[in-house]
Structures are given as structure tokens and as C-alpha cells.
Amino acid sequence: MSSVPITIGAGMLFGIALAAPPGPMNAIIASESVLRGWSSGFFAGLGAMAADVIFFCLAVIGVVTVIADRPRLRGMMLIIGGVLMLWFAISAVRAVRQTARAGGQTRDGVGSTGFQKAFVLALTNPYQIIFWLTLGVGLLRPGQIDVLAVLPVVGSELAGWVVIQTGSPALIVGFFGGIIVWITGFPALMVAAAGRDAAISTIVGVGSAAVLIGFGALFLHTGVGLLW
Length: 228
Description:
By secondary structure, the chain is mostly helical.
């Protein structure tokens, strides 16, 4: 049984699976959410998704392979991304201090700052390019995935029940729909948690800064290694 709703649902699961793991993007979303409110966290998520849209378009026309085949270019991107992460970590710590002095969330620019941070950082993240070269290509290439057929023992009996059409518009719509679900719900959870306990804002802000420092150092180390 193959249907548009099943394909959209599978795409949404792929999108959430890409957006949900801990990392620099979610660190920025969490920090923006608890320090400046839901809209700032949501716009930060939109910034990261906007970069994915660009990489998607580049993958369609094959441009992302140019970056993937040039280690020095990837190295420069990693170094730029690492420096940005360290800078954003410093900004997060400053925002925590300002919020503590203000006694609550500080709102600025209706989330525009969060969008710019996540967008620029995502554009310098070669790992997102690698995603579109691997799993992303699988999503774009026309074909079928028989989800239940790979199950042990009962796979042969369930073959054909859930078939996903790769390369279909429904899968791509579901994929970006899943990202939207995450960037809508995750900031809401962060804001709700911060509302129940004022200390959450400080904990999340400092934790996000620590994540950015860790990934920033990793990006710098990897980038330098690719250059030399």
C-alpha cells in the first residue's frame, strides 16, 4: 500500500530525525528560546531550515558535490563555522548575564538575531552538506522503499503494506514539514520549562554556550587538519 499520506508521514519522520539530535543548531534554538522567547527560538530554527532549503536546491542541481570534493574548501568552512560558534557562545553567556540582571527574558528584534545566527552557522556547516550528499540524495532519487519488507521473520508477509516513494514531492514536503514541527515545538518546550523555573534559563543558556564551545573547538581542529 503506497499513498501520499504515508509518504508525507515518512518524510516528516526523516525531517524530525535530522532536526532533533543535540548539536550547535539546537543549542542556538534553545538559548534564543529561554533568553528571548518563543519567537526568537522559532526564527532561529527557520534560519537553520533556510540553509537546508538552499542545500536542497544545490543538491538538486549537483552543486554540493563541488564542495564535497574539495577538502580545503570544507576546511575553510569548518574554521569559519568554528569561529562563529565560539563567538555565539560568548554572546550566549552575555545574554544569560543580561537576563539574570533583568529578572526574565529579554526580547529583541522579534527573533531576527536568532535567524541570522542559525542561518550563517548552518551555511558554514559541511556536515549538512554531507547529509544532502548521502541521505538527502536518497530522498531525491526516484524509487521505492518497502519499509516493512526488511523486518525479520514477518517481512515477507508484510511486504507491500508500507511503501515510500522516494524522489516524490510528497516526501520532500513531509521532510520540511517535520523540521517545521520540531522548530515550532522545541522552542515551546524550552519556554514552558523556563516559565516553570527561572533557573532553567540560566542552565540552558550556559549549557548551550558549552555545546557551542565544544563543537566550535571540534570544527576548528577538523578544519585546520583539512588545510594542512
